[in-house]
Amino acid sequence: MYGTIDRNKLEYPGHFTIGKIFLTSYRTQFLDVPQKIDITNLVGEINIYEGIKNKVLTGNLILLDAQAVPTHLPLSGFERLEFKVFTPGCSRGYDFTTKSGHPMYIYNITNRSEQTARSQAYKLNFCSKEMISNEQARISQAYKGVTEKGVFDIVRTHLKSKKALFLEETKSNHQYVIPRLRPFKAIDMLKEESHSKLHNTPGMTFYEDADGFHFRSYENMLALTRDKARPVVAKFAVKPANVGAKKDVIEQMKQVYGFSIDKQFDTLQNYRTGMYASRVVTHNMFNKTFSELDFNYQNEYELSHHTEHDGQGGKQDNKSLAPRLNFGNDKYVSDYPEGVLHFLSTTEKMFNEYEPAPQELLLPRKLSYHMAFETQILSLDVPGFTGLSVGDMVAFDAPSYEPANDTNPLDRDPFMSGRYLVKSVRHRFDFAEKKHFTKLECIKDSYMNPLPQETIDTFTTQEYDDSKANIKQYDLDDSIVGVATSNQESKFK
Questions:
Q1: 411-427 average pLDDT score
Q2: Residue 245 in this model has a pLDDT that exceeds 50
Q3: Around Cβ 329, how many Cβ atoms within 10 Å?
Q4: Fewest CB within 10 angstroms: 153, 176, 302, 423, which?
Q5: In terms of C-beta density within 10 A (0-12 exposed, 13-18 middle, 19 or more buried), how is residue 152 classed?
């Protein structure tokens, strides 16, 4: 995406172009035309948010107002917001206009405060129209067959969306009965039990970006095909602004303003959520039988695509978050399924032509795969670019923070560097500085380089054995009382 930018149009990192910004009231002005006012000169900042776990686009405008717009329009929470903003030289941007795009809807005004005797500041919060539609509808309907067919119907029929819809095919062939749920909740119900037609890991996501709505799996974000990893759209690095002779604006766009590694690992979380291992206990109500099925992270890891690949774009088996180590009694960390138990009821023959989703197989794999992405979280502040979106793959060279030496000539962290999936994006357009800033939250589920392996047990008998010190509390209390009494009596002798 960065390679397609027209260098002749992009003047500097963070350069952006925006047209007129209009608020359109529900009130008519003349000839049944809604009243519309231009607030371009009042806006100090615009923020737009995307997220893999956000169903729709949201955002806000910060206004410095000396015209009393909330009073005279008036602002009531039923206004449309129209504007178009994009990075010059990039074909992708945000079009919220009526003529060529999809207007946003004002739903809230906050932080309204006096600035001077004749001016005030406040924040207008907006969202996609589909968020409003979601609050107005309920679905009581059965869907059968592939999941994307149901998602298509919900978006087009119940949300009444006219936006582009990107659907990943599934191999789910089930029947679902939606019990009077809101549309987005119904989509959640469908996506949780879906399985990608092409990839191994179950579970899908549903989100909106500048292009439209997406229904896809995490693994589809990581891989183009069954055997080929998806290339990164940019490689970011930390470089001082005054170092290097390169003045190419595209290279400057890839320089990081700041970053933080918000989380690098969380072993307890991984145990508690079943990322390493879990056990599913099922009760078949039709056959009246019980069964148990164990999930092992190490065994499943190599079957799916991860953020890191084998160097050729293929799957790999040695860059997982859990190293091969003897964690006591010749067991790996994935050999303790009793740590997390799932209890499920399964029923056969519910429908004539369709069977329920096999949750005993899908649930532990989906939870483990998705939770692995919550283990390593990176925040990047980079020059603004509307061509960058959630679901994109990026690369980042994390500094090593060690003295310069020949063993690490690239001076980068060998584990936290590498490929990341963009989980959320905040685009901030600063009108005072006339500059666009982008904040990325990035996640990964594997290390750039494999963790060391160890076969020797370094955990068992590695602490002092104090297990014979078993003392009854009352005996201890009696001894304390006896000593105190003896000392008291000695004072009077």
A1: 95
A2: no
A3: 9
A4: 302
A5: middle
Q: How far apart are CA 193 and CA 174, in angstroms?
A: 9
CA angle (275 as vertex; 316, 315 as ends), nearest 5: 10
Which residues, in sequence order, are CB contacts of 418 under 8 Å at separation 6+?
A: 307, 308, 395, 396, 444, 447, 448
Q: Which two tokens stand for residue 229?
A: 């990893």
Q: Report the share of the chain in percent with pLDDT over 70.
A: 96
How far apart (Å, rounded) are the C-alpha atoms in residues 89 and 6?
4
Non-local CB neighbours of 466 within 8 Å, separated by 6+ positions: none
Q: Which among 231, 337, 253 has a CA at the least distance from the CA of 292?
A: 337
Q: What is the pLDDT of residue 205?
A: 96
Question: Which tokens belong to 64?
Answer: 């410095």
- Rounded Cα distance, 265 and 492, in Å: 63
Q: From CA 270, how far away is CA 262, in angstroms rounded?
A: 16
Both structure tokens of 400: 């090593």
The conformation of residue 431, written as its DSSP 8-state character, comes to: T
Residue indicated by tokens 């794999």: 365
- pLDDT tens column, 47-96: 999 999 999 999 999 999 999 999 999 999 999 999 999 999 999 999 99
pLDDT at 354: 60
Burial class (CB in 10 A: 0-12, 13-18, 19+), 75: middle
Determine the Cα–Cα distance for residues 284 and 93; give it in Å rounded to an integer: 51
The whole-model pTM stands at: 0.92
Angle at 421 between CA 415 and CA 427, to 5 degrees: 120
In sequence order, what E strands does 42-158 have? 43-51, 58-65, 80-82, 84-86, 93-95, 104-116, 119-127, 139-145
Nearest to 209, CA basis, from 396, 425, 480 = 425
Q: Are the C-beta atoms of residues 183 and 159 closer than 8 Å to each other?
A: yes
The 10 Å CB-count burial string (b at 16+, else e) for 461-477 is: eeeeeeeeeeeeeeeee
Q: Which two tokens stand for residue 125?
A: 């919060």
Residue with token string 């329009």: 73
d(CA 127, CA 184): 15
Which phi and psi (to 5°) does residue 100 adopt?
A: -125, 0
Question: CA 294 to CA 281: how far, in whole Å?
Answer: 9
Angle at 274 between CA 298 and CA 261, to 5 degrees: 85
Residue 470 and residue 337: Cα distance in Å, rounded? 31
